[in-house]
Amino acid sequence: MSYRLGVDVGGTFTDILAIENETGRTWRGKVPSTPDDPSRAVIDGAKALCADAGIAPKDIAWFFHGTTVATNAVLEGKGARVGLVVTEGYRQILQIARSYVPGGLAGWIVWPKPEPLAPLECTIEAPERMGADGTIVREIDEETLRTRLKTLKDEGIEALTICLINSYVNDRHERRVAEICAEIFPDLPITISADILPEMQEYERALTTVANSAVRPAVARYVGHLEKALRDWGMDGPLHLLRSDGGLMSAAKSAASPVNLLMSGPAGGVAGAVWVARHAGLSNILTLDMGGTSTDVALIEAGEPRLRRETSVGNLTVRASSLDIRTVGAGGGSIAHVPDLTRALRVGPESAGAVPGPVAYGRGGEQATVTDANVVLGFLPESLLGGDMALDRKGAEQAVQRIADALGIGLHQAAAGIVDIVNETMFGALRLVSVQQGYDPRDFALMAFGGAGPLHANALGRLMGAWPVVIPPSPGVLCAYGDATTRLRAETQRSFGQTAEETDDSVIAALLDELGRDVADELIREAVQPADITMRFEADMRYQGQAFEVPLPVSLDDFRAGKGLAALARAFDREHERLFTFNLNMPRELVNLRATAMSPESRLAPQELPKGDGNPSAAKIRDHSVFMDGMEKSAVIYDRARLRAGDQVPGPAVIVEMDSTTLVLDEHVAQIDPFGNILITPA
Fold first, then answer.
1. DSSP for 268-311?
2. Alpha-carbon Rg for the chain in angstroms
3. CATH of domain 3-74+219-260
4. Confidence band for 282, pLDDT divided at 50, 70 and 90
5. Across the strands, what pairs with 239?
6. Conformational region of residue 8, where left means phi above 0, alpha means psi within -120 to 50, and beta covers everything else
7. CATH architecture of 489-598
8. pLDDT digits over 162-220, tens only?
9. Is the confidence at residue 385, as pLDDT, over 70?
């Protein structure tokens, strides 16, 4: 037997999932995260799960991992000190940045720009110049460059970035500068923009490459340590990490291009949701991934998640493909508080995290959290993780009571207020990916996962009008499921910068062919057979003079047949009108062309449940009481493992399992589908 292991590191818990390749049988585990060293929870959790399942490390054929190491390095300001080499005359490129001030009209009269990841004192100029057409205007003055590079030795730089003007057209100078840098700094990781983002727009290219350098040492250390620990354990299979766009990349590639990992953690849940939705016969899905620290939401249309050409983490926005995921500081560990100034209840974004965690966890937490409110309301029973973690109900009540006293209301009213506020926060995030993108949420189902998502899903479905609400099997470890069932992905792009009238289909077909061969070769080096590779192509288009582009899928066959430009123009007009409600009678410009290669999809199939008679009584654990809609109501607690296909669970009800808890509201009913998904609809 061979197995694949998926591991996802969250702010509170680390999720582990083992899948038997031949049968699809699964084993799942959940251990507290170790923020000081995330790999410790990864290794310890994997070892514990495999020991319980009787899996030998040598039988693990693949190890798939979603990580937040790059994300945390940016958010916590713990990236490497980066040196930057730019073309002479462009030393202040990161300081000038873009003339964009966030906020509403007059909302940010004074806005201090974030500190650049490569400070000015660590930026030097290379005496050279490449023309916009790729011709050499000025050769490199190597002697002067070497003198300037040596001044960086006193700055304590830990990584080096090279971003020269027009290198996306001709990278000869960048590569020569990199050779010189390697002679002077043989122990530093060196990144050139032609490898990371060969596109026009110098600021975005420089910022993205510098960001890659900033997180590169931390990611390389983490990946190297994890690989060594896995080898010492006895695992021979390859380690792959999840990219921000939902694909996989090798450990070596991730250590060299970690800017593609900035949204690695949240991408796992969307990848898992796509896999579940495909087998459940659902095509349009809104996803709700609620963990202990934050909630991630995304939109899946016609079985495909929406992609963005940018990745945003904190104040940093880089030009790297990622799933269109929006994150809010709303999780089970979000802290409730009543500020002295306003005396109004606030929830989050501060989180109790994994340590000390909510008061109910009994690990020293003292501040009321969303989890504590759910315990007080009876939505969470007395234990988590299949009985391995007992909850301190009395402690949760005392913490929420302090909030109630500050507000001058009752205990249950305060707890309900905490839950309502966090629901509204998540509701706002869901509107960002649906209503504000031109989609009607009533045309979508809502799939909730993460440790806390199923508790709040029914309420969010009611707010959004999105039915059914889908709770997949093992919702608490669905991100790990996504890690384990997605596929290898490689991407490259090229700036084009011509209007449709200035080019023709044959030119674009030739360029797409070249890009396709480049990314296909990357997967072939990862032992993917050429016949198994799937290719996708995109074009970024805009009206000439616009400052932003619209990414659109294109067909290579259309360009080969001489009808690609016409089809692209029609698609652009449709998408532009959907996004902005208007079109212009102006030339359309092709800004960038992009090719993506993917390995075959996982052939794993979900296990089907035995068929039941519709009566869930065999899964009943006990009668229960919950506080809902302003009053105490009778409810029933069910064991999800004992529910059968076709069973119908009327609300109010609490459905428990090892890694999560599902709440069914009053006047709603949950039905179990053949694959074990819980489908909640109004009664």
1. HHHHHHHHHHHHHT---EEEEEE-SS-EEEEEEETTEE-EES-E
2. 26
3. 3.30.420.40
4. very high
5. 63
6. beta
7. 2-Layer Sandwich (3.30)
8. 999 999 999 999 999 999 999 999 999 999 999 999 888 899 999 999 999 999 999 99
9. no
Alpha helices in 434-563 (DSSP H): 453-464, 478-485, 505-524, 556-560
Choices 3.30.390, 3.20.20, 2.30.30, 3.40.1360: CATH for 78-218: 3.40.1360
Residues of the chain with CATH 3.30.420.40: 3-74+219-260, 264-330+422-473
- Residue 359 and residue 336: Cα distance in Å, rounded? 12
Number of neighbouring beta carbons within 10 Å of residue 229:
17
Number of H helices, E strands in the chain: 17, 37
Residue 387 confidence (pLDDT)? 57
Grouping H, G, I as helix, E, B as strand and the rest as coil, residue 7 is strand
Per-residue pLDDT tens digits for 614-644: 999 999 999 999 999 999 999 999 999 999 9
The percent of residues in the chain predicted with pLDDT above 90, rounded, is: 61
Domain ranges in the chain with CATH number 3.30.1490? 489-598
pLDDT the model gives residue 102: 59
User: In whole angstroms, what is the distance from residue 614 CA to residue 646 CA?
Assistant: 5
Say whether pLDDT at 80 is over 80: yes
The three-point CA angle 219-225-226 to 5° equals 90
Are 66 and 249 within 8 A, CB to CB? no
The percent helix, strand, coil of the chain (3-state, each to 5) is: 40, 30, 35
The residue with tokens 């798939």 is 64
State the Cα–Cα distance between residues 8 and 268, nearest whole angstrom: 8
Alpha-carbon span 523 to 569, nearest angstrom: 31
Topology of domain 264-330+422-473 in CATH is: Nucleotidyltransferase; domain 5 (3.30.420)
Contact status, residue 612 vs residue 645, Cβ threshold 8 Å: yes
d(CA 649, CA 143): 77
